[in-house]
């Protein structure tokens, strides 16, 4: 009994050790420690947010990265502690900055514990400071044509945000020709739906304009479809002649009408009937069924139908 209890305690201790190992590794996944003594160690801490201080209502700054990396140096204990706690901050002070392009500015570390040294990578960045302009633009919802299944067309597109505010420097704002709502979804469309759509600004040549801020950055787009379909008669087209000694009584398809869909209304209006070909040259039985015969349009236009194949019954008699 005591041996069983000891084994259970060992198992519990082992599981706790595994959980502690996983927890430690999770906390340390964004930095790596170099060195194994208490005298001097270094660690790279990645994905440290960069805080930029400037008048965001009046200025627009291009070239500021979202995050940077920091190398910490000091005793092993302090490096490990600060790498996890992240009490320090990386800042870019532009309070006294002037408008102009290609300005080299230095990044600074604040809040490091005494006895630790920090180095930012990159330590210096090149930015452009411009006067901020904000204007309101109309949003144009768009859907790629290749997403539409044959027999459907867009009847109406709408978005929750009909207008959007865009901020940037005057040159970038003046380049904006159109703001589109674009969905990243590639699913084929055959029914009304709603999708999240990203807002993208384009110039007159439909190149994306990147150095701007769009608020909000996305919207919900409603897609309403129109079905392009109608019912037309199905006719059997006989090919060839019956073998000698037989007369044709009837040729009948299992359906007399089919519903068709086309890519556009013009194509749909041109189609007046669908055909199915039946070859009589080898029919020698009094009654014969031909299955899986494809139907097609007389006008040789691209159409779709819910009844792409039919069965035809041929009745003949000997003379």
Structure report:
β19 (about 275-280) and β20 (about 285-295) form a beta hairpin. The protein has about 325 residues and is of the alpha+beta class. Residues about 1-5 and about 20-35 have low confidence and may be disordered. The longest helix has 26 residues, at about 1-25. About 15% of the residues are buried. About 15% of the residues lie in helices and about 50% in strands.
List the SSEs and their pairings.
Blueprint: H1 2-27, E1 31-34, E2 41-53, E3 59-62, E4 67-74, H2 76-85, E5 89-93, E6 100-106, E7 108-110, E8 117-121, E9 124-142, E10 152-159, E11 163-169, H3 170-175, E12 178-182, E13 193-202, E14 212-215, E15 218-227, E16 229-239, E17 246-253, E18 257-262, H4 265-270, E19 274-279, E20 287-297, E21 303-305, E22 309-318
Parallel strand pairs: 2-5, 9-12, 16-19
Antiparallel strand pairs: 1-2, 2-4, 3-9, 4-8, 5-7, 6-9, 9-11, 10-15, 11-14, 12-13, 13-15, 16-18, 17-22, 18-21, 19-20, 20-22
């Amino acid at each position: 009994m005591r041996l069983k209890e000891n084994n259970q305690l060992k198992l519990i201790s082992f599981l706790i050790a595994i959980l502690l190992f996983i927890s430690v590794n999770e906390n340390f996944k964004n930095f790596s420690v170099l060195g194994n003594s208490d005298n001097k160690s270094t660690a790279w801490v990645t994905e440290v947010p960069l805080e930029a201080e400037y008048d965001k209502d009046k200025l627009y700054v291009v070239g500021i990265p979202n995050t940077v990396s920091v190398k910490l140096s000091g005793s092993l204990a302090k490096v490990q502690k600060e790498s996890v706690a992240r009490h320090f901050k990386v800042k870019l002070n532009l309070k006294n900055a002037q408008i102009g392009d290609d300005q080299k500015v230095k990044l600074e570390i604040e809040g490091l514990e005494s006895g630790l040294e920090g180095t930012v990578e990159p330590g210096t960045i090149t930015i452009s400071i411009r006067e901020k302009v904000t204007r309101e633009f109309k949003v144009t919802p768009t859907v790629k044509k290749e997403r539409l299944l044959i027999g459907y067309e867009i009847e109406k597109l709408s978005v929750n945000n009909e207008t959007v505010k865009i901020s940037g420097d005057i040159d970038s704002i003046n380049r904006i020709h159109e703001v589109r709502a674009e969905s990243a979804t590639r699913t084929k469309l055959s029914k009304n739906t709603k999708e999240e759509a990203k807002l993208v600004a384009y110039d007159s040549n439909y190149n994306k304009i990147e150095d701007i801020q769009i608020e909000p950055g996305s919207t919900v787009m409603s897609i309403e479809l129109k079905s392009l379909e109608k019912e037309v008669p199905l006719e059997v087209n006989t090919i060839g002649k019956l073998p000698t000694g037989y007369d044709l009584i009837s040729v009948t398809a299992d359906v007399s009408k089919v519903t068709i869909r086309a890519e556009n209304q013009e194509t749909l209006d041109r189609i007046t009937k669908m055909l199915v070909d039946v070859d009589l040259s080898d029919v020698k039985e009094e009654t014969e069924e031909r299955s899986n015969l494809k139907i097609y349009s007389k006008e040789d236009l691209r159409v779709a139908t819910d009844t792409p194949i039919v069965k035809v019954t041929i009745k003949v008699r000997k003379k």
